[in-house]
Amino acid sequence: MTADVSIRNATKVFGAFRALDDVSLDIAAGEFIVLLGPSGCGKTTLLSILGGFVEPTSGTIAIGGRDMTHVSPAKRPTTTMFQDYALFPHMCLRDNVGFGLRMRGMARAERHEKAFSYLDLVGLRASSAKKPHELSGGQRQRVALARALAVDPDVLLLDEPLGALDLKLRRQMQDELKAIQKRVGTTFVHVTHDQEEAMAIADRIVVMNKGRIEDVGTPASIYMRPRSLFSAGFMGEVNFLPAKMRGTAANEAEVETALGRVALPASAFVSGVPAAGRDVTLCIRPEHFRGAGASVPTVSLGRGRITGSAFFGTHHRCHVAADGTVLTAHLPQTDNPEVGTELDLRLKADSIVVLQDGAGV
Ligand SMILES: Nc1ncnc2c1ncn2[C@@H]1O[C@H](COP(=O)(O)OP(=O)(O)OP(=O)(O)O)[C@@H](O)[C@H]1O
């Protein structure tokens, strides 16, 4: 089963503190949505509102077209999977996975069959007689997932479920989680503060900050075309270059930066081309600098001097100083950037994104 979710103007106030501030979001049935943001931004509060553990101060929640705003957690078509798994230590895996089914009065044979099929889904059928303490962290996490899915929720809510795992296992479990979600087709809403995790698993990422939604989109669209400075900065490394709008022509606009005047295509301005005189910020990903000799259409920010360089395997990460501004540039693995040498600060024109301060969704 699967269902769409509609959140309308959800606000949650704790005393004088606005943990969630007028949040609206539509989630399609079968989507894998990741709520991403720093600690305290309201991710868990939003997830708890979906699960029914927290009631919104105002606003509404509908699941599968039915208003759920004041419905108790047990009566919602949702299941929440927490980071600590909460498996029953004295029960074997089959009984752990079948526990929710027993609570719903399902007959023994049917319950066992279903528990086995979900253990199969997570690759643990052969271990069904084991107890949780006989498993690794990743295996326990899979059992918790099987148990959560066995009760056929329309929407599975996951609160930092991979938070307790070490990095390598975490990356492996992300791939498994995504593959399982695609197989079962259940709507997943997953909370994390890890940008790489969000990119690894999400159909769409919801970037949150201070109780509000800053950006919503596919991993690629948020990375390449962020709609707020916060979103650009949270989704990986970025150079922010302040600028002032100058003239605009048909499909182009000129901006003045500390590194000189630059003509940019109108498409670089994510929320439209602002009027002359307005302050804007150019967002430049470090890997978008192209060395000399690149044959693609380029924008030039003049020349800079390399003040630091470190080899990261896939690329060299360099600091480049130009006219009092220090930029970060990732240069190809095969380059040999040396500190003290000069670098052409050239970019593909369509790789620059220009945002107005205070922009967002
Ligand atoms: N029951 C509560 N009473 C008072 N304040 C609360 C309550 N629950 C959450 N808050 C506050 O609301 C803000 C948002 O909390 P929330 O748990 O949603 O953040 P989060 O983005 O999930 O952060 P984290 O990643 O640290 O879990 C925090 O500042 C938190 O202290």
From TrEMBL:
SMART domains: AAA. Residues 5-235 form the ABC transporter domain. GO terms for molecular function: ATP binding. InterPro entries: AAA+_ATPase, ABC_SmlMolc_Importer, ABC_transporter-like_ATP-bd, ABC_transporter-like_CS, Mo/tungstate-bd_C_term_dom, NA-bd_OB-fold, P-loop_NTPase, Transp-assoc_OB_typ2. Keywords: ATP-binding, Nucleotide-binding, Transport. Pfam families: ABC_tran, TOBE_2. PROSITE patterns: ABC_TRANSPORTER_1, ABC_TRANSPORTER_2. PANTHER family: SPERMIDINE/PUTRESCINE IMPORT ATP-BINDING PROTEIN POTA (PTHR42781), SPERMIDINE_PUTRESCINE IMPORT ATP-BINDING PROTEIN POTA (PTHR42781:SF4). Belongs to the ABC transporter superfamily. This is Spermidine/putrescine ABC transporter ATP-binding protein. It comes from Shinella yambaruensis.
